[in-house]
């Protein structure tokens, strides 16, 4: 068959699943570069709540391994991440497990004086950001506050939820003054401290999970109307200081919760006061396009917060296995035009499942979740644009991305327990070479073949695997 190229690399069967060895099915995939969707930002993680200090030695990780762990996460040829989500701390002084505020002492009134303190450390988040930048010079820094300083809130404390004094319904004996402008200035001051360190903050956020009051840690509530009351001050303040910065709304606990805030924000007349819709995947899934008025959306935090450490790709079917994360990302990118996907912690000394890399004193263990991120983001780099990709089989998921230089990434997720023979039809793509990278129980984004392109691409996609085709 003239013009058909074959990349066949069948994985050695070490699956927990059984299937008839010789059973294959065929499917056709169509890629069309003329139909463009969202611009991608990438994958990422966070070192909030002092966890960055564990990545930088507080539990015995040696300086050499601090570098290796950060490189595994952020190097373009390994984990391929490009987002760091930092917590703009609200704790006065240094308290283990909390993030120190740049305003340890609050003035009596919003008239000031504001004696900001910069310790060039930021509870180890500065070192995390600097080291990530070493391995990925284009890291997208998301600076996000969990709470305003307690003095600016109805509850008088960084914990216990509460509202910013000055937004509607912020009735409290603690709200003698309207602190909204002071809080906006405070957030911008944090960005200025990073600028002093030569680091550009790309995205600035004022809330974390404002639909949820966890009581025991830094938190602040807001509905969409109250978000409007604050963002109408933050947005012009941030843009005046940093014309290129983006402002987020609002890191809700789930996609549905975020959609609700966005509807209210719009009703309140505040849809012009944010640039990126940010949401977490804890309480609900994305499922459909966001009501963000055409603005991009990012999934900015998620992990299996309660489970034991799960490093596997596809052994148990548990929700935190790598293979499941590949499907979560596919669904967000294709069904909700999501531009990036941020895991909760980066690296943590733990037996739990909140980080991509588990530390144990000076040892480290990489979760296969990182290989799900890498299957997408080693190839669909920041600034790539998602293009049309369709599959003839419901359990064979495909998406495609054109990089700035015209190279194309096509991650294909095979959910079936048998291999698919696929024929990939390429429209509007000028590439001449196709390389294939496999991730399954035995491969971590491993190069498995390369060939010249001359028309359609024919390949095998292994069972329970992601195979990413990189066309250049
Ligand atoms: C698979 O096909 C090959 C060649 O047709 C045959 O020799 C082999 O017995 C088959 N294996 C199974 C498990 O059916
Ligand atoms: C940053 O502060 C932490 C305590 O919060 C400390 O353990 C660490 O050594 C400091 N890092 C640097 C680079 O000074
Ligand atoms: C006001 O702030 C104080 C702490 O400064 C707190 O104990 C109190 O509960 C707050 N009042 C209300 C109504 O939340
Ligand atoms: C904003 O971004 C543009 C394009 O990247 C750059 O040329 C410019 O210097 C930036 N401006 C500021 C104030 O950082
Ligand atoms: C680090 O992890 C190990 C293994 O889980 C645990 O025994 C140890 O207590 C942890 N250290 C700290 C400081 O949390
Ligand atoms: C194009 O960009 C991709 C992604 O950044 C990179 O991996 C690749 O080497 C570049 N190719 C060329 C030919 O510049
Ligand atoms: C292929 O080349 C054409 C003509 O130069 C160009 O318009 C098009 O954008 C290229 N396609 C991709 C995916 O880069
Ligand atoms: C990825 O797999 C290769 C080949 O099995 C292995 O050498 C390498 O250590 C793995 N990388 C990581 C970071 O686990």
TrEMBL record:
Which residues constitute the signal peptide according to the record?
Answer: 1-16
Domain Glycosyl hydrolase family 30 TIM-barrel: start-end pairs? 124-229
Q: Which residues form the Glycosyl hydrolase family 30 beta sandwich domain?
A: 383-469
Among Gene3D superfamilies, the record links this protein to: Glycosidases (3.20.20.80), Golgi alpha-mannosidase II (2.60.40.1180)
The record's Pfam families line, in alphabetical order, gives: Glyco_hydro_30 (PF02055), Glyco_hydro_30C (PF17189)
Which keywords fit this entry according to its UniProt record?
Glycosidase, Hydrolase, Signal
Entry's family note: Belongs to the glycosyl hydrolase 30 family.
> Which named protein is this?
Glycosyl hydrolase family 30 TIM-barrel domain-containing protein
